[in-house]
Amino acid sequence: MMASTASLLTPHAAKAAQSWLSQNANLCTTSHSSPQPLFIGGSCPFRGRASRRRNAAIVRWDSGGLKQTSSSFEDICQGCRLQGLGFGLGSGKGRGLRRGPVAEVVGGQEGAQAGASGRGSSNGASGVKVANVPPPLKIQGDRTQNGGPNQNGVKLFNGEGDGVSGSATNGSAANVSVSNGAPANGAKQPLNGNAKQAPNGKPAALVGSTTEPPNRIQAPQFGNGVLALPQRLWRRTLRSLSSLELAIGTLLTVAALSALGTVVEQNKSYQFYINNYPEENPSFGFLSWKVLLDLELDHIYTSWWFLSLLAFLAACLMACTSTRQLPMAKVARRWRFLKSKAQFRDMDIIEELPRAKAADLVPMLTTKGYEVFMKGPAVYAFRGLAGKLGPIGVHIGLILTMAGCAYSATAGFDGSSMTPQGQEFFIGDILKPVGILSRMPAAEQYRVHVNNFSIDYMPNGNVNQYYSDLSIVDLNDNEVYHKMIKVNDPLRYGGVTMYQTDWNLASLQARVDGGAPFRLPMAILDDGVGKTGKLFGTFLRTGPAEEPRGVSLVARDFLSVAIYGPDGNFVGVRRPGSNKPITVDGKDIVIEELIGATGMQLKYDPGVPFVYAGFGTLIVTVIVSQVSHDQLWALEEGGALIVGARSTKNKQSLPGDLDFLFDALPEYLPSEEEGRSMERAASGRNGKKASVAR
Amino acid sequence: MNYFEFESVLQNGCFISLLCATLLSWWEITFTNFFNKKIIYYYQKNKLFFQSRIFVWLSSLFLGTILIARWFISQHAPLSNLYESLLWLCWGILTFGLLGNRAQVTHPSVVASMSSSALLINGFANLSLPLSMQTPSYLIPALQSNWLLMHVSVMMFSYSCLFCGSLVSLIFLAVSQKKLKISFSLQLGNHMLLEKEKNFLFLRTLDQISVRSITTGFCLLTIGILSGAVWANEAWGSYWSWDPKETWAFITWLVFATYLHLRVFQGWEGFRSAILASFGLITLWICYFGLNWLGQGLHTYGLFINQI
């Protein structure tokens, strides 16, 4: 299909294009001296092996000026060849998978014809073959069909058109699917039901989506070797796993079970469940503590069925990414020209502009950031392809995160310590393995020495911050590292991280009757969870050894100690370090100091880098996915320019943006002579398109 | 004037302007539907229509000032407990709910829903929460971190966007009383639109507003959850501990991910996606607000049941 050169460019447009090209010479892929192919507005997305020598020549730069040629279809490189991709779930229903516009189908037909000589796997199942090209869709309100003149033709695609989008197609999409066993010899056999009407009365090939490009899975050809059966089974599994309903169902099940875990208390003691879920009066009639513990509802998030469900979700994700998204990314980068007006359907906007030229559209689109391809009278432009590739990144990020979590769960170390001030512990003693892949880090040999533990209080007595002064000491008693940690500021050494999480009062130092100071260990009287704080107490014996007679010393924090006499009555309060004695039971007691113990959480988590990498990927790609993928097709036919546009995220503003563009398009009023010759040509030759005279 | 007087002036101003915004938008809705064309034309000609937006911006300004004053007084980001996060949510709803929509698109029904919910939230925060929670105070050690601003503010913004989008979906459900399959391959011309077409356009606009808000909210929710996980790792050594709040944020994320997927791949536009978004609203509200009644977990900064 070779259009005549230069006939499609008016002198004005040729000049405009020429000046644009000279200004954007850096976009040209080759030198200007020899006629080499180049693309307007961008470079070929498929610089792969197949396309190196076969760059699709769309526009030729000639020393004599800009000329336009269109190469024959065969010259288009393998990557760009319009392929219909096939998929089939075996059931052929194609539920949930979207179809592209009819262009895909027609292109597939041509592609199949051209590549029918069994060329490799990428071409093998040029899936969607239509036995016959369907008649054009009757467009509501299309006045051209009435033969009258049409002004800015307005096409309303409601009512009838509705049925083509979304839900109605799912049932009728059956007719366009391809079974897995597409003939290996590339014979052009029409597939079942392709020529039949869809159940809702529309011609089969009209099914399509408004929003999404084809969402197809490659169905490669298999030989009859030994690996054929496992390969086919593998393919079948993959395809079943990549079903959207399955994934959504799994997602919602995970959500529901997680919600259950917030209602049923997790990780409490046995006694708790016995008390709260009694057998005599089970919740919901069946949920006694026995049932609860058997179903592992006390630790839902680490139960085998929850983890299996998560693993299944991960498998669905991976299947979806490999079988759908990656091919979709390849398809989305292809440019698909529409060859006739009838193919303009299923788009957000379709407009017909009389007496406009496609070539005028090109520089305007490029200034708006589109990448434009032109082939004869047809134009295809897109921008924002990142928005199509973003979701792939999201899935990959999710998979990476889950892999990191799985690694953490099987190869980490965990542990907590409560160390009084002045004492130390071995890191290796505290760290306990979490899973089967856990390998103790080298830091196990080091000791952590708690030099000091202090609490910083605010004027009103509330805690401001907890501070622990720590030293890491090696086997030779050398200090290798030193840090004062606080909450939100952990110590990291050798891959092990130590967090300030808890504290206790360990002991109380006192002097009785001016004697030598001694320390009394303190015990926790009240855990203080959920209430105002912990309570620690100790007992100072004031009577002879045989009598259990003494003074109770009780403290909540470092600020004050309350003293109770032998009969339990309150005697007084002292601040540690005030040196003020208190007389109880005949003895003068001076409370010198409260010594604390610092509670730390130690962790060794080799999966964290992967998890963080997954997080970073997710954050970036979720934002990138918001970029709108806009596509625009144009076709010069019958003296008018038909433009169709589609957008994923900009539907609301698309009409306004395009109106701006269309208003700027020049309209070529025919001169009298041209008009007469056009009429003559149109009436004289049947079936052939009238060519515009020079 | 000390700080408390200053803040109470602002609070009162905010409340009054929210009240005006709500009442005015309700008035405007009534006008567009029930009165005859002459009156409507008069109001449109004199640009007296759809001015409830002004009161919304005014209350947003008041709230913003309150938050900035709190920040200044307490020397930390005003995000430490339920009261302050409710104020952020209010401010977020008012600002983001109307920011994404241009003047001609801000139908009074949208304004009515945003302002009435902001009014209720603001009223609850100021009237029902205990005074001890309302006074700016010190941060507990676990919250003394730069992550506080990063994580909690992003979460509040995401809650605002998701809330707005779900509210608009509720309006959609209310306006479309039957199932409507909305096709978006629609091109407008210059001819006069029928009532049915106007309704269709309005519903389609609502649908678009809803999906854009929810998409933005979803991005922010992702970032918020992930930053929360990183913060938890820095503070407690575990980036995910299945805390109720974390779990419900995850559930909300899953529900809205379902919304986006079904919308894009199954063509669930219009009525069905509005149902999904309403379900997401319930999930969101449980996540943010309902968990305070649960009383356990690491996120109990907003616990007020014991204090009431």
TrEMBL record, chain A:
InterPro entries according to UniProt: Cyt_c_bgen_Ccs1/CcsB/ResB, ResB-like_domain
Biased composition (Low complexity): 110-128
Annotated GO CC locations: membrane
GO-annotated biological processes: cytochrome complex assembly
Keywords: Cytochrome c-type biogenesis, Membrane, Transmembrane, Transmembrane helix
UniProt biased composition (Polar residues): 142-153, 166-182
Transmembrane segments: 304-326
Protein name per the record: ResB-like domain-containing protein
The species this protein was found in: Klebsormidium nitens (Green alga)
